[in-house]
Amino acid sequence: MASTSPARISIEDAAGINVTREEALDWFRKMSLIRRFEERAEEAYGQGKIGGFLHLYIGEEAVAVGAMAALQPEDDVITHYRDHGYVLARGVEPKRVMAELYGKATGLSKGKGGSMHMADVRRHLWGGYAIVGGHIPLATGLALAIQYRKLPQIVACFFGDGATNAGTFYSGLNLAAVWKLPLIAIVENNHYGMGTALERVSAVDEVYRKASSFDIPGVRIDGNDVLAVRDAVRRMADQSRNGGGPQLIEAMTYRFRGHSMGDPQRYRTKEEVEEAKSRDPIARWRSTVQENDLATEDELRKIGDEVEAEVEEAVRFAENSPAPDPGELCNDVLVSE
Q1: Helix then strand then coil, % of the chain, to nearest 5
Q2: DSSP string, 143-184
Q3: How far apart are the first and last CA of the chain?
Q4: Phi, psi of 122 (to 5 degrees)
Q5: Distance between CA 266 and CA 1 in Å, rounded?
Q6: CA 297 from chain center: how many Å?
Q7: Among 158, 163, 162, which residue's Cα sits nearest to residue 118?
Q8: Phi, then psi, of 306 in degrees rounded to 5
Q9: What is the pTM of this model?
Q10: Which of 67, 92, 97, 184 is the most buried (most CB within 10 A)?
Q11: Per residue in 15-71, pLDDT tens?
């Protein structure tokens, strides 16, 4: 009979500063890149240069950067529609991501996917999915394929707190637990599913406790602490990679922007948002880096300038790129890879 011991779920803090100077600066650069990239995308959307929907990741950068730092290049990553941060953290060139937002032929998905459907097979990045929780069973399938083929990698599946109330969350994780698949479910708890607070729609608002439904390990971590994210994902990835089956991480964070660009945000106050900004993950990591003598203010400022130039180049590339040829419309429906 399976155990449901509460000892399998816990709350964790980062265990000290175990990071090199190179890693510290790389994480600062990537989080700054995601932030500035999305600020420029927000401007372009307001100018009518980007169509469709645009869900910004601003405020949650530490989750994507910390998690990618813990994963191996061959590990599979699958995520939801707020996907720009993961794509940039995985190493995709910003100009290809911006061109995709502009719907240009040089975009990551050749201008056919847009904001919510970024994918890069070479980087084992299987895309953002627009249907809430719809990709969780796909993650289970990816993990089953890995187990069947006896491959060394795992699957990291990212989704928001709202998805944990969907049936796909339970069916996907249940099978993963039954078959002990190499899957890490990483929940980004930003407190709202669109405009609805988690506690209004979930009987259990401490999401990590839902892991006990499947008798798998579950932890809650500070998702605004990039180091805490790296350490938790690394440890649970190792467990899963070594036959420990699926794991669940709840990363507590907050999105500073609305659900999408059309969100009037009447469900929360300006004071609440400003209070959350006091825990800004980038400012926090900047302070940590300086307090531990990993970089000077001038070095961090130089990184900021380089990020600014890289993002402006991405915008120029997107604006000067051609639109897709109409003849490409039915190509790439199936791939041979």
Answers
A1: 50, 10, 40
A2: HHHHHHTT-S--EEEEEEGGGGGSHHHHHHHHHHHHTT-SEE
A3: 41
A4: -60, -30
A5: 47
A6: 28
A7: 158
A8: -65, -40
A9: 0.94
A10: 67
A11: 567 899 999 999 999 999 999 999 999 999 999 999 999 999 999 999 999 999 999
